[in-house]
Amino acid sequence: MTTKVQGKQKQSLRAAKAKKTKVRKVVWIGGGEEAADKLRDAEGRRSRQRNLVDVRASDATLADRQLLEEVEAEVEALRQGLRDSSIKFVLEAVGRKRYDKILESHPPTAEQLAKAEVDGEASAGFDPETFVYALIDACVVEPESEPGELEAWLRDDPDEEWSNAEVRDLFNAALEVNLSRPTYNLGKE
User: Fold this and answer.
1) Angle at 31 (CA atoms; ends 67, 80), nearest 5 degrees
2) 22 with 99: CB under 8 angstroms?
3) What is the side-by-side strand order in the sheet with 24-30?
4) What is the DSSP string of 57-116?
5) How far is 87 from 125, CA to CA, in rounded Å?
6) Which of 120, 138, 159, 174 is the most buried (most CB within 10 A)?
7) In which region does residue 31 sit, left (phi positive, over 0), alpha (psi from -120 to 50) or beta (all else)?
8) What sign results for the dihedral spanned by CA atoms 96, 102, 105, 107?
9) At 18, which helix (H) or strand (E)?
10) Are the C-beta atoms of residues 134 and 147 closer than 8 Å to each other?
11) Where are the domains of the chain?
12) Pick from 114, 112, 118: which is nearest to 131 by CA?
């Protein structure tokens, strides 16, 4: 329902609630560095070829345009190959109350607090050995898993499948969906 005030339509709270969605983020993990390097190289060649065609504009040859099409097709094939060999993680905000509950459930240990004090640093406010994995587990909605299953796979990792960078990327995404919100300039109202 909307109402008019001085010629402008005002949105009702009910209509606003219907538009509200949870913050989501996609993180791709895996695929291998070699495949990623090939994709980056092909994207670089595509960019250079696009620039060449753009600069030459009407003077660009048929061969220039064909080469651009070939490189664009190569980029898409490499991107699809990288996707096929990667794991797609979709993370979603858990909401303020659940986030706070997870945070409160993983306080820093006395040892961690003492170390932070000795090092002259502020405490993270959570136990990084447990909170990181619990938050990731709570936020990942794809791939589907049972509660605690992803947490155990990441934390226990007997086969050393997970690098620190991969876990950090997932944790940063979990923090991002819960602690930030993209804003957009939609122009003047």
Assistant:
1) 40
2) no
3) 24-30, 86-92, 140-142
4) GGG--HHHHHHHHHHHHHHHHHHHHHHHTEEEEEEE---HHHHHHHHHTSPPPHHHHHHH
5) 30
6) 174
7) left
8) negative
9) helix 13-19
10) no
11) 31-86, 93-181
12) 112
The full length of the chain comes to 189
Alpha-carbon distance of 136 to 133, in angstroms, equals 5
Q: Which two tokens stand for residue 13?
A: 């709270």
Prediction pTM value:
0.74
Dist CA 150 CA 127 (whole Å): 18
User: What residues pair up with 140 in beta bridges, in sequence order?
Assistant: 91
Q: CA–CA separation, 134 vs 142, rounded Å?
A: 15
Q: How do residues 54-101 score in pLDDT, each as one tens digit?
A: 877 777 788 888 888 999 999 999 999 988 888 999 999 999 999 999
pLDDT tens, 118-167?
Answer: 988 887 789 988 999 999 999 999 999 999 888 888 888 777 788 889 99
Amino acid letter for position 96: R
Task: Read off the tokens for 101.
Answer: 């509950």
Task: Calculate the CA 83 to chain-centre distance.
Answer: 15
Query: What is the chain's alpha carbon radius of gyration, rounded to the nearest angstrom?
Result: 24
Residue 148 CA to residue 112 CA, distance in Å, equals: 24
Compute how many other C-beta atoms are within 10 angstroms of the C-beta atom of residue 56: 12
